[in-house]
Design brief:
Blueprint (H helix, E strand, L loop, with lengths): L1 H13 L1 H6 L1 H4 L2 H9 L7 E5 L5 H6 L5 E6 L2 H13 L5 E5 L12 E7 L8 H11 E14 L3 H14 L7 E2 H10 L3 E13 H6 L5 H12 L3 H7 L2 E3 L2 E14 L1
Parallel strand pairs: 1-2, 1-4, 2-3, 4-5, 5-6
Antiparallel strand pairs: 5-9, 7-9, 8-9
Pfam family, one: Methyltransf_11
GO biological process, one term: methylation
InterPro entries: Methyltransf_11, SAM-dependent_MTases_sf
Amino acid sequence: MTDLRDLVKRQFGLNAERYVRSYDHSKGESLDRMLELVPAKPDWRVLDIATGGGHTALAFAPRVREVIATDITQEMLDAAERFVRGKGVRNITFAEADACDLPFGAAEFDLVTCRVAPHHFPDCARFTREMTRVLKPGGYVAMIDNVVPEDRAADEYINAFEKFRDPSHVRSFTANEWLKFFSDARLEIETAEVFRKARDFEAWAGLQTVSGERKAELRRRLEHAPPGVAEALGPETREGALFFYLTEILILARR
């Protein structure tokens, strides 16, 4: 796990500013839906896990009393804090934390959020239990992450594709696997919704500063994907630019 932690820190430390500026991480239908579904209250204390560029924390900050934004990578926290302070927001604080071993006591938070990050975590079952542990009784968990098809061959192809771009990628799970993580952690699922999010290939590859050779191989794997994978990723060319789709799940649950 230590080696993976170091790899995540290195990958995201090198690319922190890119994630702050990333349109795909700052906005999206699933984030809008998360904000719509969560019945945030002005006195709430919120924990945002793996905050990345700080976009989810920033979205909730006007609705609650306090947001604690955490990440395992200090450079990412520094970049997110500069971004947030530049927006004039003062009720977000930043702290380094491992998503699978949170440095907080039991029942501290009214809401725990985590968005498009768990596919980098070494143990998502433990991560889900940690979210439950730090949540107050009756509190909410709102999580978004990429998911893969239930078909095993497509699952393996897409995960290998992701890992070839970003070695710190561990695994995108299926929707059913995520639902089981939540139920095993004794979280009561209120909503589970799936979204397809278009990604510009060049922007996606550029987030991790891949080499020209690696980018060419990624393009080849995308354009020549087998039928089940092609159906899931939906590669298409728009005005000469290559786009494809990633699938996200949004789960809202209560303790």
